Amino acid sequence: MKKSEFYRELEEVLEADSGSISGDEVLADFDAWDSLAVLTFIAMVDEKFEVTLTASKLALVKTVTDLVALLGDKITV
Amino acid sequence: MELSGRRILVTGASSRIGRETTILLSLLGASVIVVGRNAEQLGITLLSLEGNLHHVYAFDLSNVDEIPRWMKDVTYAIGPLHGLVHSAGVQCTRPLRIMSSESLEELMRVNVTAAIFLAKGFRQKGVSVAGGSIVYLSSVMGLVGQSAQSAYSASKGALVTLTKSLALELSGENIRVNSVAPAMVRTEMSKKMLQLLTPEQIIQIEAMHPLGFGQPRDVANAIAFLLADTGKWITGTSLVVDGGYTSR
Fold this sequence. Notes:
The structure holds 2 protein chains of 2 kinds.
Chain A: H1 3-14, H2 35-49, H3 55-59, H4 64-70
Helix pairs in contact in A: 1-2
Chain B: E1 7-11, H1 16-27, E2 31-36, H2 39-47, E3 55-58, H3 67-78, E4 81-86, H4 101-122, E5 128-137, H5 150-171, E6 176-182, H6 188-194, H7 199-207, H8 216-227, E7 238-241
Parallel strand pairs in B: 1-2, 1-4, 2-3, 4-5, 5-6, 6-7
């Protein structure tokens, strides 16, 4: 998946406006980034990438860029 | 508890609770018909059983319409059943905002529709003997709620009331229908579910179980109790096996 497509998926998870995510955002700044959003994100990644993330790994993530890094080569430029 | 000479079909026998149930039933003297999707896993289950009167069938329960016919074929080959345990099930942690009808329907198909069609198959002439006993694997999630578990809890709650209606419908045919409702038991399914939680959240969930998390054998004991003559005056009930989870 392209990075831009991933941002749109993430906007869905966070229920953020389309185009509002561009990579440098800090997740904690989103009111919607709560435990339910974390579960939603894990489910989305499971469905779209067939990758199983753990909550422990996600707990270390601070920014959108960190999320992209977590998915490694599953996300292309 | 005594199950000597009883033939009992167990679905989901390659899962942890299903496997533990088949082991206990074999120790109690039953001949177990081990059913699951994964032939290799079923072979492992078979090796762990006591005695040699057991059978393995790989069958995909999502082919619900084929279940009654398939049960006829199986019992024609090996003899009629005394009991049935439906422990196959799909767990899915999905907040509403990412729920899809596709995943919901798949879950309902295995957890609920297959349960109904297994009962339909079980009551057929020649498939079960008089005094048969059906046990479904429900969950405390079918009795109380939890965020992100709406699909799973809807399916497990459906089993609680399905149990009651079938108990009434099948009492005239001398078939008992019950379910077991466990809370968190350490299994592969719960391991996958617990991966979605942080260590702090897992501690919180364990604290909601006054007696801690359960073991597969705790659930298997309840299932065997309902299958054996110990449960002969019990029908339509959901036996809660939850370490106190729903006592609050």
